[in-house]
Amino acid sequence: MSENVVPAQQPAQTAPDTGTGAAANIGVVGLAVMGSNLARNLASREGNTVAVYNRSHERTDQLLAAHPEAGFVAAYDYAGFAAALQKPRTAIIMVQAGRATDAVIDALAAVFEPGDIIVDGGNALFTDTIRRERAIRATGINFVGAGISGGEEGALTGPSIMPGGSDESWVTLGPILRSIAAVAEGEPCVTHVGHDGAGHFVKMIHNGIEYADMQLIAEAYDLIRHGTGAGPAQIAEIFAEWNRGELESYLIEITAEVLRQVDARTGAPLVDVILDEAGSKGTGVWTVQNALGLGVPVSGIAEAVFARSLSSHPEQRQVAGDLPGPAQTLTVPDEAAFIEDVRLALYASKIVAYSQGFDAIRAGAMEYGWRIDLGAIAKIWRGGCIIRAQFLNRISDAYAAEPDMPVLLTAPYFVEAFTRAQSAWRRVVAAAAGSGIPAPAFSSSLSYYDGLRAERLPAALVQGQRDFFGAHTYRRRDMAGAFHTLWSGDRSEIEADGTH
Ligand code: NBP
Question: Where are the alpha helices (DSSP H) in 244-329?
């Protein structure tokens, strides 16, 4: 063992000896909240001995002191870290996404050998993962970008894991990741998503859906508060009740808890004390940017991102307060019926958001050449991650029945849900618009739904406009070919290739 490797205070679990003298079968680099929790999770599973390394040694020492039971093998430089690992060496990087990740990859590549595996478990942009995988491939070292969802609690007790990378690395990595992932209905919440950046792409879409889900829940709360006058604690009970039905999910569950919380300083509901300016760390923006490039209308996710942006411009909101419009109060004749309408509108809008997210995964897979099993993705999101929900079973069922479904929301189960929900959905959106209460994600989801249903869209007029000012051509309903109209000439129309 290298001088720079310090065994933990308690004996490490026995790892199979591969003849190198190395003690650990897996390593973690980066011991902030996510890395240390993931390392503890790994150490708690039978058969794992975990090597740990952090740039600043204090974090390493703190982790060792706080968790002697984990039997960590601590390293204080990269050479020592490599020496501590059995071959093929497998290391999970949990550092700040971006330049820190590149720095750690370079350092590990310098001490690892062909066949070893470097896993980036941070929130990397998938195009960075593709770039990194390409760059490292020449060395013979495997690079795996793995999306990990579930926050610090998930990292410790079982996250949902979305790994990309090569088939070869999955042979070694699969059993390790399966051992630490959340378990939903007896199945580990991890699957080999696809090659290179596929895992981080799917994690990005997961976060985009999370944005939409959170915004929809927030709009439902806001409408109920306006429509019934109920306070946060009473609305918490409504969400708790919803969590026993088809909306059952982690986000609905924590919403009830957030609404119940009382501010220790003032005794007021905490949600009334919190400044109404929502922040973000970027994965929602990435989802929308990439969906725009792929031509996939993720309107629910986009509205959720824009709603956070709008909330975070107090200087604009201050000067806009006197704009004309309804008083933003809502009177409903039957409060119980209105609450049920909002529940149904939330469910229908949620189906739209998830359907759009899965469309984006399908489009990304086609663009980047990944074979992604959409039903398997729905399954690994049932546990461990932020959007975990019962409802994901319906999505995996839908893809099992028809893997090449062009649009998820046309699956029979969802058609039945829309049959039940759509009148309520329209009443809620109309009530919001009529009273001036913003409900951007509810209303854009409904517009998307109606856009898909429409027999004929005004896109025909847009094509005419495009041809008028830019000779962009259009296609006709009654014959093949591309056409351009001579808008001010004698002949009304020529085929774009110049033939009549
Ligand atoms: P942070 O994102 O706060 O990163 C801190 C870690 O990065 C520390 O270990 C720090 O080392 C290390 N680091 C930095 Br900064 N620059 C470095 C460099 N040049 N070389 C080596 N190490 C460097 O940690 P986190 O919140 O635990 O998240 C880790 C990853 O997991 C991130 O990519 C994050 O996006 C992702 N993630 C986080 C969550 C969450 O809920 N927090 C959820 C899902 C995914 P130091 O101690 O020496 O400064």
Answer: 250-260, 270-273, 283-294, 299-311, 314-320
d(CA 222, CA 445): 17
Q: Which residue has the least CA distance to atom 15 on ligand 1?
A: 96
Calpha distance 154→386 (Å, rounded): 9
pTM here is 0.93
- Is 152 touching ligand 1 by the criterion CB < 6 Å? yes
Q: Closest Cα to residue 424, out of 316, 306, 321, 342?
A: 342
Give pLDDT tens digits for 113-164: 999 999 999 999 999 999 999 999 999 999 999 999 999 999 999 999 999 9
3-state DSSP assignment of residue 38: helix
Is 58 a residue of the active site? no
Helix axes 299-311, 335-368, angle to 10 degrees: 110
Q: Which atom of ligand 1 is nearest to the CA of 124?
A: 33
pLDDT digits (tens, 9 = 90+) for 453-497: 999 999 999 999 999 999 999 999 999 999 999 998 666 667 675
Distance between CA 90 and CA 100 in Å, rounded?
A: 19
Distance CA 86, CA 65 (A): 24
The catalytically annotated residue of 133, 210, 219, 303 is: 210
Measured from the CB, is residue 100 less than 6 Å from ligand 1? yes
- End-to-end CA distance of the chain: give it in Å, rounded: 81
Nearest to 428 by CA among 288, 217, 223, 249: 223
Alpha carbon distance 19, 314 (integer Å): 63
